[in-house]
Amino acid sequence: MNCAVSDAPEPPPPHYTPYVPEPAVELGPALQRLPWSAPLRWLKLGWADLRRAPGIGLFFGACFALMGLAVLAVFRHAPLYTLALCAGFLLLGPLLCLGLYQVSLRLERGEAPSIEDALGAWLANVRQIAIFGFVLLILEMLWGRAALVVFAVSFDGMPDFAGSLRQLLNPDNLGFIAAYLAVGAVFAGLIFAISVIAMPLLLDRDTDAVTAGLASLKLCLTQPLVMLFWALLVTGLILLAMLPYFAGLIVVGPWLGHASWHAYRAALGPPAPGQAQ
């Protein structure tokens, strides 16, 4: 009697459908992989855009410099609030540069940019841009409140610096400076993470503010070294531009605005035909 056991698999039952796993769902637009040196290329491309449309760029740069001078004028009378205004000047950068993104977009398409078109850039996706701008404004207000708290816990009563930055930077105030910078770093990091490519995305594609913010956050979380390098470059250039009475912002401001557009384009690539505005 043959008791051998066959190794052949049993046939599947009738009407059997093999399991095929569902493809992974991409949340938001797909991101490109960026080399660590990508920010240097963005600066190069941004400089090229500034040279191709210098009049519009210098107009925006002059506006940035005048805003900085206005902050200095306020500092003489209200240093407490001016520190928050200086932070807000940086935090609202993505919104202030919206017109520069529009100029880079026009140049990319081979079209001639105009100052009227740049100033009306927010009309491309007005509702979602307004929502995102409102979020930035809320974060700026929270930062201002946090600045007041730092002042309150660092000094007995309201300090009077008499409009002097030298008095503010006195070694006796090192604890205050450290706390102020730490809180500011938290807000600046959060703003950068959710907005580094969000505004160009809202300008370029028919998307919503939440998707744009999440795409920006995803880029920072998945490619942190590249984006940290970019953040350090942006911060360093802005600080240097602020030193000579904000005069450097006339050039550095629009330069970084154009470069930020190319950061967005490198991260997401050109939109699909159905996504273009």
Description:
The chain has 277 residues and is an all-alpha fold. It has one domain. Helix content is 67%, strand content 0%. It has helices spanning 38-52, 54-75, 79-91, 93-96, 98-108, 115-119, 126-154, 165-168, 174-195, 198-204, 209-222, 224-242, 249-268. The longest helix has 29 residues, at 126-154. It is globular. The mean pLDDT is 81.
Overall outline: globular
**Oligomeric form:** single chain
Structural class: mainly alpha
Given as residue ranges, the uncertain stretches (5+ residues, pLDDT < 50) are none
Average pLDDT for all residues: 81
What string gives the helices and strands in order? Answer: HHHHHHHHHHHHH
Helix content: 55-70%
Labels describing this entry:
globular; 277 residues; mainly alpha; single chain; 13 helices
Layout of helices and strands:
Elements: H1 38-52, H2 54-75, H3 79-91, H4 93-96, H5 98-108, H6 115-119, H7 126-154, H8 165-168, H9 174-195, H10 198-204, H11 209-222, H12 224-242, H13 249-268
Quick structural gist:
With 277 residues, the chain is mainly alpha-helical.
